[in-house]
């Protein structure tokens, strides 16, 4: 398994896009990665947009980005909440500084915007936040997946297969 000994944070908050959380988590686990669901509170059940639950293993304050190899930010409406937590923004900034894989899909770009890391980066997202992404200084394109260094971005659930493959490839490097 090519991702054995790799650890990934998967951020969770209410109203995450169900597939955009669970598809990457399960695919990375299939390849041997340890994926920890991390939310504001540990051992809390968060409910996705379509009713699929996810229970956090850890609270934001329980983990340190330095101990992980990558981070996943799901879309849905959760990113609008996640970007309000200083710990989440710190995770993103630390991962960015250390050039560790940062995966973002759909509305998850909002978290990267709030962390201030998109200036000069090539990205994609749901077209609904294209203006937000470009106003943050990024170069936006309408592609299934865009990889710019350690930042892997994607648009929406139909793009999950190439998105997760690109994230896993970067994590395996």
Automatic annotation (TrEMBL):
Residues 6-167 form the DJ-1/PfpI domain. It comes from the Bacteria. It holds the Pfam family DJ-1_PfpI. Transmembrane segments: none annotated. Its EC number is 3.2.-.-. PANTHER family: DJ-1 PROTEIN, DJ-1_PFPI DOMAIN-CONTAINING PROTEIN. It is an enzyme of class 3 (hydrolase). It comes from Virgibacillus natechei. Keywords: Glycosidase, Hydrolase, Protease. Belongs to the peptidase C56 family. GO terms for biological process: proteolysis. InterPro entries: C56_PfpI-like (IPR006286), Class_I_gatase-like (IPR029062), DJ-1/PfpI (IPR002818). This is Protease I. The lineage of its organism: Bacteria, Bacillati, Bacillota, Bacilli, Bacillales. PROSITE patterns: PEPTIDASE_C56_PFPI. GO terms for molecular function: hydrolase activity, acting on glycosyl bonds; peptidase activity.
């Amino acid at each position: 398994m090519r991702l054995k000994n790799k650890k990934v944070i998967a951020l969770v908050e209410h109203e995450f896009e169900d597939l955009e959380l669970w598809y990457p988590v399960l695919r990375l686990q299939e390849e041997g990665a340890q994926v920890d669901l991390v939310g504001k509170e540990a051992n809390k059940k968060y409910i996705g947009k379509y009713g699929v639950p996810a229970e956090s293993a850890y609270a934001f304050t329980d983990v340190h980005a330095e101990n992980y190899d990558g981070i996943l930010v799901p879309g849905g409406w959760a990113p609008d909440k996640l970007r309000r937590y200083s710990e989440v923004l710190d995770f993103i900034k630390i991962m960015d500084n250390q050039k560790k894989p940062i995966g973002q899909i759909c509305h998850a770009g909002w978290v990267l915007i709030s962390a201030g890391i998109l200036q000069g980066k090539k990205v994609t997202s749901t077209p609904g936040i294209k203006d937000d992404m470009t106003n943050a200084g990024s170069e936006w394109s309408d592609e299934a997946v865009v990889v710019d260094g350690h930042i892997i971005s994607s648009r929406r659930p139909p793009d999950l297969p190439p998105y997760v493959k690109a994230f896993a490839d970067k994590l395996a490097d």
